[in-house]
Amino acid sequence: MSETRVGIAMNGVTGRMGTNQHLIRSILAIREQGGVRGPRGTIVPEPVLVGRDAAKLERLAAAHGLTRWTTDLDEALAMGDVTVYFDALSTSHRAPAVMKAIEAGKHVYCEKPVAADLATALELARAAERRGVKNGVVQDKLFLPGLLKLKRLLDSGFFGRVLSVRGEFGYWVFEGDWQPAQRPSWNYRAAEGGGIILDMFAHWEYVITNLFGRIESLVALGATHVPERWDERGERYDADADDAAYAIFEVEGGVVVQMNSSWATRVYRDDLLVLQVDGTHGSAVAGLREVKVQHRVTTPKPVWNPDVPNPIDFRAGWTTVPTNDAYDNAFKVQWERFLRHVVWDEPFPWTLRAGARGVQLAELGLTSWREKRWVDVEELPL
């Protein structure tokens, strides 16, 4: 069996997502398991850490037994064995670095959103297609155990005709004064590509499209609920990006999807992301890992009567979907598929063009909020 080593320039790897999900739980985990195995051999990723802070890079590399790191992206792209460029930079810095990698002939894989605006996102997709490099965007939520179980229910016809979806996402992100914030300060600065609409609508586009169908129109309302925050240095700043968004999406076939996204809410639910799907034959509530269902034959028949205590334990009538499969880290699963795409040319539909649809949805959400109206979602131009 042949072994193929793939050099990967990992840019922005000292950030929260770059370090935890992409380096440690994906690339290093793949190396620890002996690589990506298939009928045509084994793929072993060889990371080259790239970033702006030499001290952070050196510490991160030393902590994980890695020897190659650089603060010079051009140097990384010039390394002979580097064939893949990965980008986990902040949104405002992503497009120029991705374009440089494309022009250098590297296959590219990047975090979402792929750009801060649709025109730039399409420019990147077209450039990659012209250059003939393989390309992809992170769409990790498709590989979460909860959403995989939900997809199985949909494919089985459990719901009958799907009527509606209600999604709740978010948690309280501390302001940074009396407790450190869990998210970087650029997330709350509009000039740096911050804002929950740009960040989360990219997720909602691929989740809704892959599970329920193409989004045809939307209406959205954004808000900056917490306008004052403190950054990583403890300095106060004006948080001018939206930290919450409330949206309704009309999906082909008549499905209505409501999504509340907020970094200014406290959690009273089973998970940070919960989707309730209601259909003519059954309903489901999906979190990141667990899914509970109720079929129409076990649905209780409540009667509105506020004058007496509620006699029905509604939660008791739901059944947990069993975990019949082994589930791996969602980011790692998609990394393995991208590496198989690069080396063995296996299908990989989550391209930069697919990522551009997420940017389009965010732009339309911002337009709807600004103009206070419904907007249609057109097919992307070629």
Keywords:
2 domains; 18 strands; Rossmann fold; Dihydrodipicolinate Reductase, domain 2; single chain; seven-stranded mixed β-sheet; 382 residues; nine-stranded mixed β-sheet; 9 helices; globular; alpha/beta
What does this structure look like?
The protein has helices at residues 16-32, 54-63, 73-78, 91-103, 118-131, 145-156, 196-211, 330-344, 352-371; strands spanning 3-11, 36-38, 41-50, 69-70, 82-87, 107-110, 135-137, 162-170, 215-223, 228-230, 236-238, 244-251, 255-262, 273-279, 282-286, 291-295, 319-320, 375-376. The chain has 382 residues and is α/β, with parallel strands linked by helices. The protein folds into 2 domains: 3-140 and 330-352, NAD(P)-binding Rossmann-like Domain (Rossmann fold, 3-Layer(aba) Sandwich), CATH 3.40.50; 141-328 and 361-371, Dihydrodipicolinate Reductase, domain 2 (2-Layer Sandwich). The chain has a 9-stranded mixed β-sheet with strand order 17-16-15-14-8-13-12-9-18. A hairpin with a 2-residue loop joins β14 and β15 (282-286). The chain starts with a strand and ends in a 6-residue tail after the last strand. The relative contact order is 0.16.
Write the layout of secondary structure elements.
Blueprint: E1 3-11, H1 16-32, E2 36-38, E3 41-50, H2 54-63, E4 69-70, H3 73-78, E5 82-87, H4 91-103, E6 107-110, H5 118-131, E7 135-137, H6 145-156, E8 162-170, H7 196-211, E9 215-223, E10 228-230, E11 236-238, E12 244-251, E13 255-262, E14 273-279, E15 282-286, E16 291-295, E17 319-320, H8 330-344, H9 352-371, E18 375-376
Parallel strand pairs: 1-3, 1-5, 3-4, 5-6, 6-7, 8-13
Antiparallel strand pairs: 2-3, 8-14, 9-12, 9-18, 10-11, 12-13, 14-15, 15-16, 16-17
Helix pairs in contact: 1-8, 4-5, 5-9, 7-9
